[in-house]
Design brief:
By secondary structure, the chain is an alpha/beta fold. It contains eleven helices and 13 strands. The protein binds coenzyme A (COA).
């Protein structure tokens, strides 16, 4: 393997807005309670963006931190991929705004939309671009301001979501370090189970779509719940098979933070003890594409992923989409 270079993460960053909304605060907004949310979902609090904050301002802060850690000036970034379902505006891409905030003048920029799996999809794309030699330095930014599309009258969804951004900067690194494999999947027949129906070409924004609350997250929680754990376990299995790495070799699983019970199901079905599974859902709630990016940064910062550690990231989200990414740090 000596002398082989492949895409790897060389810096990470994160940002969460200052304002915190606790379960006790939520009790004043919808009919719910801390005990139900804690036991059924595992969330204690979530962060809420200030009115002037957007996906690109959150994302730029996380990206700047990732670049600083890697000691890479913004001018050296070749490409910015932003994963989000809550872009600053429907178009142009939030990645272009992030490019502007960073002053990353040489970078190409575009958004991808794979809901909660967006960071994994972004890593897979960045890896392909680097491994085929097209680009050398790529920022993958996962940023969400989900509380702007949260229906505060719907207790089934209002309790779940929060705002955050995470970022990773990728460059060629010397094997055996780097991204060892990725696996992506989707099932478009289930798209109506988790969606925001309003504001696109099917239901363009109108008084009627606003009156019918179509610009909010709609979710069949039970159906999503049943699918999520199994899909993440499947994604884990596939990437491990493809790379010839066994589950025993995985030092840390970083699953999408949607619900503690989904995380536990994914871990159980993947035959991993919870000691080797990362969780921070209690602090941030479900921040869609950002959860895995934020968790990767926190796990590194907390020393749970030292040099040489093998990390398995896995996510599941609207679409449905799912994906996994196996890397050696
Ligand atoms: N507070 C208090 N009680 C609530 C509640 C809330 N926010 N939401 C629902 N309930 C009640 C229901 O009314 C129901 O009461 P009943 O038994 O008296 O009828 C009971 O709790 C169970 O409701 P149910 O909808 O079956 O709960 P659940 O166990 O399926 O949990 C979710 C609901 C949303 C937490 C769960 O389905 C889930 O996490 N799904 C996946 C969501 C997700 O992660 N989406 C994003 C994926 S990327």
């Amino acid at each position: 393997m000596a002398g082989l270079w492949q895409a790897g993460v060389v810096g990470t960053g994160m940002y969460v807005p200052e304002k915190v909304l606790t379960n006790a605060d939520l009790e004043k907004i919808v009919e719910t309670n801390d005990e139900w949310i804690t036991t059924r979902v595992g969330i204690k609090e979530r962060h809420i963006a200030a009115p002037e904050e957007t996906v690109s301002t959150l994302g730029a802060r996380a990206a700047r931190q990732a670049l600083e850690e890697a000691d890479i000036p913004p001018e050296e970034v070749d490409l910015i991929i932003t994963a989000t379902i809550t872009p600053d505006v429907p178009w142009p891409a939030s990645a272009c705004f992030i490019q502007r905030h960073l002053g990353a003048k040489q970078a190409a920029a575009f958004d991808i939309q794979a809901a909660c799996s967006g960071f994994i999809y972004g890593l897979a794309m960045a890896r392909a671009f680097i491994n085929n030699g097209m680009y050398r330095t790529i920022l993958v930014v996962a940023s969400e301001v989900l509380t702007r599309i949260t229906d505060w009258q719907d207790r089934n969804t209002a309790i779940l979501f929060g705002d955050a951004a995470g970022a990773a900067v990728l460059r060629p690194v010397e094997a055996p370090r780097g991204i060892l494999g990725t696996y992506l999947g989707a099932d478009g027949s289930k798209s109506e189970l988790l969606e925001m129906p309003g504001g696109g070409s099917r239901h363009p924004a109108s008084h009627e779509t606003v009156d019918n609350r179509l610009h909010y997250i709609k979710m069949k929680g039970n159906e999503v719940f049943k699918y999520a754990g199994r899909a993440m376990a499947h994604a884990n299995k596939r990437v491990l098979e493809d790379t010839g790495i066994s589950i025993e070799q995985v030092d840390l699983l970083i699953p999408h933070q949607a619900n503690t019970r989904i995380i536990e199901a994914a871990a159980r079905l993947s035959h991993l003890p919870m000691e080797r599974v990362y969780r921070n859902i209690e602090k941030y709630g479900n921040t869609s594409a950002a959860t895995t990016a934020v968790a990767l940064h926190e796990a590194r910062r907390e020393g749970r992923l030292g040099p040489g550690a093998i990390c398995l990231l896995v996510a599941f989200g609207g679409g449905f989409t799912w994906g996994s990414c196996l890397m050696r740090l």
